[in-house]
Amino acid sequence: MAASDDLDVLLVSNLEFEHESVEVTLTSRYIAIKKPTSQFCIALEDILAASSHTGPPAKDKICKFNGDYKAIEMQPLHSLAFKVCVVKHAKKHKWRTKELIFTCKDHATSSQWIEKIKEVLYGPGFSRPRHLLVFINPFGGKRRAPKVFEKVLPYFELAGITTDVIETERQYHARDTIMEYDLSTIDGVVSVGGDGTFSEVLNGLMERTNKDKGVEQNFRHKPARPGVRIGIIPAGSTDCIVYSTVGTNDPITSALHIIVGDRVGVDVNALYKQQDFVKYSVTMTSYGYYGDLLADSEKLRWMGPKRYNWSGFKKFVSNKSYEGVVSFLPVERSRSHPQDRTRCFSGCKICLRARLESETSESARDNNSGVDCWQSVEGRFVAINCVTVSCRCGLSPEGMSPSAHLGDGCMDLILVSDCSRIDYLRHLIRIPKQNADQVWPWVWSMLTQCTVY
After folding, report:
1. How far apart are CA 365 and CA 368, in angstroms?
2. Which of 21, 29, 316, 329 is surrounded by the most beta carbons within 10 Å?
3. What are phi and psi of 222, to 5 degrees?
4. Which one is catalytic: 46, 195, 292, 408?
């Protein structure tokens, strides 16, 4: 696209780029670089920051003056060049950075470009954070969260983002802090840790928002939507939420997503015991095998990530099943199916359409929640899983339910009926395989979608 096609041209200059004289144009959406034989554009959404560039000093120039005298040409006091740091999209969903250097004829032009780029990036057209509240869990996963944050902090500093950093010292430390913190002073909350740390931050923010808006967290309440976003820097054992939303658990990639203001809507479930509210969840709610596994692994946190393998082996050997009745509200007109092999990431059209419909018809949930609409399944189950997102991780690249959407207002209900160890082992083996059908006919009794409620 040519820069002249835009009516909002903000700045045009003849600069030097990669040893060539080029025409550079800044608009509200991109920077266009026009070379003698080609042209390309850099989207502003991919730009992290712009700053002055000094670079290595040039060689001293020695000149003859009055015969034997020599004079040294001095370097300019102000930089004539500026650099633009941009996001470089690497393989496997990873992001890295690259610097583009532009040389100007004078310092005033360099300063003008830097200030204008900053003005646009932090203007109303972008939703970039300027100040963040950061919680670091030094005890989770492999206890590497502090070092992980040290690794990504320079990127925040490069973008001019300030941080209020708190290392959690106990359970519910992050939640208690959020309940008392002045949220009007920050643009977002960042969780540095695993899924447990994120869950505590999420529940604290949801509880604080409900409190501020007078919403009681009682049975089947309608929670208020927080006005503050949550970012995640992965440093846990599984990092399911990061894998499911970004596609990788690379800390630098997550930091860059936060810096450029990327956002994605994720469904949140409210969990109850009888009619008492317990907590909010965004991943998978399990009863049976996985629930027993997680409960047992909590006693073995000293083992690190290996505790999941040990607890999983113990629960597999015991091969317990549970008698119960599962009631659910099926989706009447679903645009997706748990087995349609779609993959949901940021920008998903299905999730966007579901959100727009939800905003235009807030009473739809109440109108569809009548007792007559609910269905029930009775029997003995090895596992009952309600999957809100795909739950991808390093050990299971496709996740528990690969086609689960992030924000479509639905969750995948997976019921595993009572079966032998060998049949259940076949199911467990198939989950990590990328091209395998997760539904093993001898094991699964139902795979359907139900509404998040």
Report:
1. 5
2. 329
3. -105, 100
4. 195
Confirm if 229 and 190 have CB atoms less than 8 A apart: no
**Model confidence at 446: pLDDT above 50:** no
Instruction: Give CA angle at 380 (374, 382), nearest 5°.
Output: 105
b/e per residue, 63-99, with b = 16+ CB within 10 A? eeeeeeeeeeeeeeeebbbbbbbbbeeeeeeebebee
Beta-strand pair 131-136/162-167: parallel
Pick from 51, 98, 44, 100: nearest CA to 79:
51
* Amino acid (1-letter code) at residue 139: F
Residue 117's φ and ψ, nearest 5 degrees, are -65, -45
Nearest-5° Cα angle at 354, 450 to 233: 90
Instruction: Say how far residue 81 (Cα) sits from the centre of its chain.
Output: 34
The secondary structure of the chain in percent helix, strand, coil, rounded to multiples of 5, reads 30, 30, 40
- pTM of the entire predicted model: 0.85
Task: Please list the residues that pair with 267 across neighbouring strands.
Answer: none
CA distance 169 to 139: 9
CA separation for the pair 86, 235 (Å, rounded): 25
Closest CA to 178 of 228, 127, 224, 225: 228
For 216-257, the pLDDT digits (tens) are 999 989 999 999 999 999 998 889 999 999 989 999 999 999
CA distance 61 to 76: 13
| Contacts for 146 with CB less than 8 Å, ≥ 6 apart | 136, 138, 167
pLDDT tens-digit map of 82-111: 999 999 998 889 999 999 999 999 999 999
Distance CA 201, CA 73 (A): 58
Q: Collect all residues with Cβ–Cβ distance below 8 Å to 331 and sequence separation of at least 6.
A: 410, 449, 450, 451
